[in-house]
Amino acid sequence: MEGLMLARVLRDLSAQLPLRTLGWVFPDETTAALLLDGPRLGGPSNLVLAYRPPQPVVYLSRERLRGDPRSPFQRFLAARVRGDLLRAEQLKLDRVITLHFAGETGFVDQPPTRLLFEVTGRNANLLVLDEGEGFEGRIVMAAREITGSRNRFRTIRTGGRYTPPPPYEKLNPRALSPEQAQALRSVPVGRWREQLDGLGPLLGAELARRADLGPAELPGEAWPRVLAAVQSLVADPTVSEGALQDGAREAARGEKAATLRKALREPLDKRVTLLRNQLADVTRAEAGLTDAARDREEADLLMAYAHTVPTGAGSVTLPAFDGSGERPVSLEPQLSAVQNAEKRYARARRREDVYLRLAEREDTLRAELAEAEARVQALDTADLPDLEALSARVQQERPEKSPYGTRFTTPSGLEALVGRNNKENATLTHRIGRSLDWWFHAQGYPGSHVLVRSGGRDLDLPDILYAARLAAANSKARGSSNVPVDYTRIKHVWKPRGAPAGQVHYTDQKTVFVDGTLPE
Predict the structure, then answer these.
(1) Which residue of 72, 339, 420, 440 shows the fewest CB atoms closer than 10 Å?
(2) Which pLDDT does position 249 carry in this prediction?
(3) Confidence of residue 252 (pLDDT cuts 50, 70, 90)
(4) pLDDT by residue (tens digit) across 149-168?
């Protein structure tokens, strides 16, 4: 139900207020009908509030309705929302209305309350608020509780504070001036609803029909005709059958686009976060070059003055090569001076190798980050075809997954499966793998089991290196160089008695050394 349609219902209702209420009935579990009585109504009428997503509605009906409360919320509504209906308000022309009730005195007094209806499609909700003005206040009870797990931007909890939907800027069709309408002459008439408050897909299609223009047609000099159509919609926001079909199609497309946006936002946000973290790794690795230079300098000093370093010393002071004075050097007492130097050389090499490997990817990472950020920014404005194309590209870029582990393809076309947790590791190794398939694991590091389904054939060297890099990149050695990876046939891998899932022993293995990064 769209904003102008709601305004028409409230306009007809407000002309009769205040009205005496005769109680609530509940035709079904998501419909509440309030029986109203007053001389100007010409007899009892029902104000019907149907709050089932995705098509909530509000209307006045003379039909005789029945039904007892079918949920705790409906029982609360019947018991607590009582008394004369004093006022009905709408938030601008948004799909949010508030009904003000006077309360009543009796055996148990009921205080004044407000009934707030969010007539907002998939997010439709009916809430009882405490007495007050406007559209804010404490939520006494809600038909649908919205927690942070369902909507991270806006929660609705009984006892919490209700906050209206965020404000927006649109033109008011009830006060649309000729100057404002003329400014929209270069906007397709089907998109005027994006500029006018209270219009959705249905009324947007009806506007085009009443203006005798196609939805994609520019009004141009015919803008006065469109202005007249807007004014007629304000007076009578009903929809003809043809426009209803066109608007329904447009609403379905809009619903599909909203679903796609929601589905795409999470993976795209994750992609942006991952790329930013990887670029931060480059920055940290660059800072590590300073430590590498210091390690090399201390190692050179230790090698040059090894004969002067006392055995078992925890530190030593050595003269700097550039004559700048004495340099304190910490030592591991159990190692000789040469061994301490070799350890520093190895640490410096690792830091330099990590930086060089990451620096090679820096330009690529920055380009990928710019593309990912552009995709996120385009989500809010992209139309349905663009969203579908983006969804297809994102799906193609994802690694192919199977019910058991992430699936990759080796250079010779064999299937390689990578366990994503201990349970999947156990499943791949003990249930999926056949005795002559190949099994890979980073030596001495916790990580994924990698299964290459070879059908009993021996592996070519490119396949071995590919699978080994998968194992190294999915282990605690990720990002390191020269990671030892063991591989053997599945028949040589077994689970020790009583061991937890994913823990194995193996024999007859061979070892290769690879980088701990994913293969191309």
Answers:
(1) 72
(2) 59
(3) low
(4) 666 667 888 889 998 888 88
d(CA 171, CA 175): 8
pLDDT per position as a tens digit, 185-238: 999 888 898 899 998 888 888 888 889 988 888 999 999 999 999 999 999 988
Long-range CB contacts (< 8 A, 24+ apart) of 389-398?
Answer: 390/264, 391/260, 391/263, 391/264, 394/264, 394/267, 394/268, 398/267
Query: What tokens appear for 339 in the block?
Result: 């061994």
Please tell me the predicted confidence (pLDDT) of residue 418: 94
Query: Measured between alpha carbons, how far is 358 from 281 in angstroms, rounded to an integer?
Result: 8
Tokens of 380: 């809010």
What span, in angstroms and rounded, lies between the C-alpha atoms of 520 and 181? 56
Q: For residues 98 and 110, what is the distance between their CA atoms, to the nearest angstrom?
A: 18
Residue 109 has pLDDT above 60, yes or no: yes
Question: What's the rounded Cα separation, in Å, for the pair 416 and 425?
Answer: 13
Residue 520: CB atoms within 10 Å: 6
Give whole-number Cα distances, 316 to 223, 293, 339, in Å: 88, 19, 15
Tell how far CA 447 is from the center of its chain: 28
Let me know: does 260 contact 387? Beta carbons within 8 Å.
Answer: yes
CA 113 to CA 21: how far, in whole Å?
A: 14
Neighbours of 158 (CB within 10 A): 14
Buried b / exposed e over 190-203, threshold 16 CB at 10 Å, is bebbebbbbbbbbb
Six-digit token pair at 419? 């366990």
Extract the tokens encoding 469: 């890099």
* Omega prior to 69 cis, within 30 of 0: no
Nearest to 431 by CA among 340, 493, 387, 363: 493
Tell whether the torsion through CA atoms of 364, 367, 372 and 375 is positive or negative: negative
Give the separation between CA 5 and CA 130, rounded to whole angstroms.
27
Residue 69: its H or E element: none
Whether 461 shows a pLDDT value over 90: the answer reads yes
Q: Is the pLDDT of residue 401 over 80?
A: no
Q: What angle do CA 346, 280, 291 make, to 5 degrees?
A: 30
Please return the burial class of 16, using the count of CB atoms within 10 Å of its CB with bins 0-12, 13-18 and 19+.
middle
Helices (DSSP H) in 31-105: which residue ranges?
72-80
Query: E strands, 278-347, where?
Result: 315-319, 326-330
Q: Could you give the strand order of the β-sheet that contains 45-50, starting from the edge strand earlier in sequence?
A: 20-28, 31-37, 45-50, 57-61
Contact at 8 Å (CB) between 18 and 84?
Answer: yes
- Looking at the DSSP assignment, which residues form a beta bridge with residue 19? 85
pTM greater than 0.90 (yes/no): no
